[in-house]
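Supplementary Note 3. Input sequence used for the single-chain structure prediction.
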Amino acid sequence: MELLQNAAHKRQQSIIKSYVHEMEFTILPVSENIGHRASIYIEEYSLSYGISAADALIAATAIENNNALVSGNAKHYKPIHELHFKQFKP
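The predicted structure, written as discrete structure tokens, is reproduced below.
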């Protein structure tokens, strides 16, 4: 969802969708627990750390599915202590 949001036009969206499919990424559904957890993160961290709804959903999804989150955006995820975060540096 966040990848598609940042596409500049339909062709980029198509490329992103093809990439996700070709790399066989697993797309996880947003469950009630994920939504609830994400809303807590928004309430707790949006003003102080600038976490967006998309970032909150991504973090909540990783936590609820016992996955690490790899991102270059450490600032928004720093306060979420239960998150197993790995900094991505290309």
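The longest helix spans residues 32-49. Residues 4 and 51 are 19 Å apart (CA to CA).
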